Amino acid sequence: MSGAALGLEIVFVFFLALFLLHRYGDFKKQHRLVIIATLLAWYLCFLIVFILPLDVSTTIYNRCKLAVNSSPAESNGSYVTLAPSKQKCFKPWSYIPNGIMPIFWRVVYWTSQFLTWILLPFMQSYARSGGFSITGKIKTALIENAIYYGTYLLIFGAFLIYVAVNPNFNLQWNQLQTIGIAAANTWGLFLLVLLLGYGLVEIPRSHWNGAKRGYLLMKTYFKVAKLMTEKADAEENLEDIMEEVRKVSECIKYNHPLRKCVDTILKKCPTEYQERMGRNMDDYEDFDERQNSYPSEKSLVKLHKQVIYSVQRHRRTQVQWQILLEQAFYLEDVAKNETSATRQFVHTFHSQEPENKIIQYFYTPTVEWYWECLLRPWFYRVLAVVLATFSVIVVWSECTFFSTKPVLSLFAVFIQLAEKTYNYIYIEMACFLTIFFLSICVYSTVFRIRVFNYYYLASHHQTDAYSLLFSGMLFCRLTPPLCLNFLGLTHMDATISHQKTQPTAYTSIMGSMRVLSFIADGFYIYYPMLVVILCIATYFSLGTRCLNLLGFQQFMGDSEMTSDLIDEGKELIRREKRKRQRQEEGENRRREWKERYGNRDDSTRNRAVHTDQKESSFTETNANRPLSKYTRSNGRTERDRIELLQDAEPLDFNADFVNDDPLESDSGR
């Protein structure tokens, strides 16, 4: 089994990263280099989290062998051996041979650092560039990153000059490498504690609130109202950008040198706009004979960038709108079915996506009713209590992990108890659950945060290339300090335990932080205590209240603005439900007409036309009745379809109340 566990986890983590990237990214529309770079960044970060417990168990086994095989005279060497146990050192099932883990960690760490500090920032600028050629995009990316790279080179150059001039410093290459790693980990730890303090409180609270049906429904109404405003703004922005594209397309004709750039912009526009603009391009003019001013290539690059952004934002809001509507309809169905006497879950609307037959066979309406109305709230409450317990343990350990005598960190206590009996399975499970929970708290915050419209991870393949690359940068910068923090909580880091025991392969790659004592003995130990203040601020929603005061509407139960948005969202859901009901009624009427009159033989109809006048008149009269019925039904269905396609104002419901009456007659009828 040597190395088999490592190989299995490498394969499993790859498919896990691929699955998550497929959920958020779009493999068909986004550039392959963006997909590959983001996948590599996510894969390396997840790999570090999953492989680190194997490194811990292998290190404990190596310490055991060293303690058993060493003599008292050898105990004064580079390592202080532990007291040999009476039990024999059993090799763990996931033991990794010596020499593999250091090479593995060195490749993974330096590849992730190359991605986060050099490649991914460059690819971000390349992805957002509006250039029409690869050379133009590379030039734009280099110019945008010149300040970014220049700042780091200036700081590093000043540090090297200071070290060379000062005679008190005699640093070697390994020490300079350790200083660079410490600087990167310090920046990552600063951001890590901020995200961890939010996730430790918000994750248990979100699961506890998930058991409250009324709470979830009100929050969904709030999201609907906010998304409607964003959706209307995206549509208006797209209309303005398309108007500029139309003017440019009419100005620059086929024989203009910049026409290829205009055609590239038109390909990025939605299909309906491309067809509309193509109708006015039948003429052929010589641009040299006109005295009008033409847009420059620089302005076309800017317009191209705006088109890409506006189209992506419009598509994302449309998809999110449909998803949020389905969620609101489902929560309303759950609220209605809670009082059902038949204990059969009844949906208002059928699912638009085909259901799996296996899931449909086992997940019957009865099973769905018991799960959604009875079991799921209790399951979420129990899960919230377990997660809250983990959060309390993490906060306590973050504040006490520097204490070695006595050992106050609970994670260190658990690992040391298992180390005495060499229960490697328990050690690996405890390490995996600990680092997995820390990763969930940090990574879930990365997936939740939104920086206006520049960074936003949207599911259902709606995340743009810039946000995907930015998330890869964050993961690569947060994972190394996260792992060092985990090793400190379990006292597997010699810098924290103050023992000259054999270090893990991961900490040996990081180097000895004693080169910078003020970071090793100060910042790394006392800064994580700030997580207590951040947890208290998150519990009382201080950040949410500050954003609400600044004008960014946040969901707060005691806010008047929140109540208004909830009422607005409820009215929007009611209107969309009426539209969908009318649409289903129209489809049912068309289906019934096809079943009644769709199979009529054409030959019978043709023979009836050539009969005598009296039979012809009689046949025509009878034939017109169902035809007129179909015409009225079709007209009504067409009118419903027109109502669905019309864009109404998000806050004006009076017009919808007037137009929603299906019995209201119009001029055509």
Automatic annotation (TrEMBL):
Residues 576-669 are annotated as: Disordered. The chain crosses the membrane at residues 6-21, 33-52, 103-126, 146-165, 177-201, 378-396, 425-446, 523-542. The keyword Transmembrane helix applies. GO terms for biological process: adrenergic receptor signaling pathway. InterPro entries: GPCR-associated_LMBR1, LMBR1-like_membr_prot. Residues 658-669 have a biased composition (Acidic residues). The gene is Lmbrd2. It is found in: Membrane. Residues 582-617, 635-644 have a biased composition (Basic and acidic residues). Residues 618-634 have a biased composition (Polar residues). Residues 224-251 form a coiled coil. It is a multi-pass membrane protein. Keywords: Coiled coil, Membrane, Transmembrane, Transmembrane helix. Its main location: membrane. It comes from the Eukaryota. The keyword RNA-binding does not apply. GO terms for cellular component: membrane. This is LMBD2 protein. Belongs to the LIMR family.
